[in-house]
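Here is an idea for our session: we take a single protein and study its fold together. Which protein we use is up to you, so please pick one and set it down. Once you have written the record down, we can walk along the chain together:
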Amino acid sequence: MSTVPLDEPVGSRLGAPARSEKESRAFVASQWQLIWWRFSEHKAAMISGVVVILIYLVALFAEFVAPFTPDVVNAQYLYAPPQTLHLFDRRDGVKFAPHVLGYKSTVDAAAGRRTFTLDPEQFIPVSFFVKGEEYKFLGLFPMDRHLIGPKEAGQPMYLLGADRLGRDVLSRLVYGTRISMSIGLVGVAISLILGVLLGGMSGYYGGFVDNIIQRTIEFLRSIPTIPLWMGLAAALPPNWPPLRIYFGITVILSLIGWTGLARVVRGRFLALSAEEFVTAAELDGASDLRIITRYMAPSFLSHIIASTTLAIPAMILSETSLSFLGMGLQPPLVSWGTLLKDAQSVRAVLQAPWLLWPAAAVVTSVLALNFLGDGLRDAADPYSH
């Protein structure tokens, strides 16, 4: 009579293949652990997540990261080209001495403009955590330290070049990050509330309510997007202050952007409405709003998170498009869209191609958010292969 060793897995004794250590961990892991393990396997999503976190940190600490305030004008350096940041001084050996090269300018009488070239004889020291213009850190604490800047006040340091008024493009790009990225978050938050509530009501109640909400969604989605944005933005009172216009544009984008999420939520609610836990909640006397928000919506929260992440790039592109067309945010507010307005003419781009840096910021953030959303969408269903 053959015997089976006691330390052999039970599955092997019964003729079934033994589970690996990874399978054993997955068998007892929670839903969120499975989502994290699946997400961590998506390398592009992991890298994009780091990029998105860095972008939002720049937006949060914009005053500290930017070398100057966005409205500092210097008429001596109109359309000054970018300066390269050198970390080491090799004039007398090699030593750590961050610096940029100064400018040598000439006036082109025929073209009526000043041209700049970098002068290797001019050595402008650069320091980290340098004193500069005073600001309120996080809007609360007065500070005058900046991450990087020239050691001597008044010295030119344009790491990404200067615009038509001699303003630092890097500083304006950093300040624009706050508005462009925050308008995506605020707009998606409003769209999320509208999408979950209206989509949930449509799928939960059905019938007349479903018809009204679905016909409204179809009507909104049938209108060309950009003309609709332009029309609603033009309806804002011209005497509104910039901050109110900012919130007005956010609300406009939110009122249009909830339809896609509402369709997804409706489909999920139609599938969940016949589940036993919904019936149990109804028999227990739970209100319709509690059933929707407490029981049904959390059951596919991971899908909502993925959809929300993928909706943020659309909000950013919408704001950029409106501001670029002159129908969105207006100066003195600084966003990536308002910065790209300076690059509308071919002449400006030919003379100062560095004015297109905001476009690179838009592309980078949109791609990072899309890859992050793809990773979250795949991780939202950890049991699929």
Observations:
- Residues 173-379 form a domain with the MetI-like fold fold (CATH 1.10.3720.10).
- The longest strand covers residues 113-137.
- Residues 10-14 have pLDDT under 50 and may be disordered.
